[in-house]
Amino acid sequence: MMWRSHLVMGLGAGYLVSGFDPVLLAAAGLGSLLPDLDHPNSWIGSRIPILPTIARGVLGHRGALHSLAATLALGGIIGLLWGREIGLAMAAGYLAHLAGDMLTLSGVPLLWPLPVMVRIPLVKTGGLLERFVVFPALTLGLVYWAVLPEVSGYVGRVMAWLT
Ligand SMILES: [Zn+2]
């Protein structure tokens, strides 16, 4: 999937797990971009080119980084370093990335190191369906279920404070 689809899914997962907390949403958003660290054209990989070279050389693309083991390792390490809530939010975003990639033709080695690719091939990465249906629908869903209620809550509190 495209990085922006992953980001929207990661933010949605972060919202489901942690609510509308900017720090936790940022952690979930970052987590949703990390699995493609092994790809030179990924959002992070294109900005820090040495990372895909190292990750791809050690793990291969859509290898260990696209697995439940990596999700648990990331969530555990971040949780130990910066707290359970941040680790959980980042793991939620990371897991959302894996769920998105599972819907592509390539699938993901979810149970790595077992050599089984898990896939429900509904979407071609960057294809018309993703660009014009999946990404807009995910974005509208995130805005409708997460952003609008929060914004209306703030507006309501401000209006109550003003009156
Ligand atoms: Zn990926």
TrEMBL record:
Pfam families cross-referenced by the UniProt entry: YdjM
Q: Give the keywords, sorted.
A: Hydrolase, Membrane, Transmembrane, Transmembrane helix
Instruction: Specify the domain of life of the species encoding this protein.
Output: Bacteria
Annotated coiled-coil segments of the chain: none
Citing just one GO molecular function, the answer is: hydrolase activity
| InterPro entries named among the record's database cross-references | YdjM-like
Entry keyword Transmembrane helix: yes
Signal peptide extent: none
List membrane-spanning regions: 64-82, 94-112, 132-155
What is the protein's given name? Membrane-bound metal-dependent hydrolase
- Its source organism is Desulforamulus ruminis (strain ATCC 23193 / DSM 2154 / NCIMB 8452 / DL)
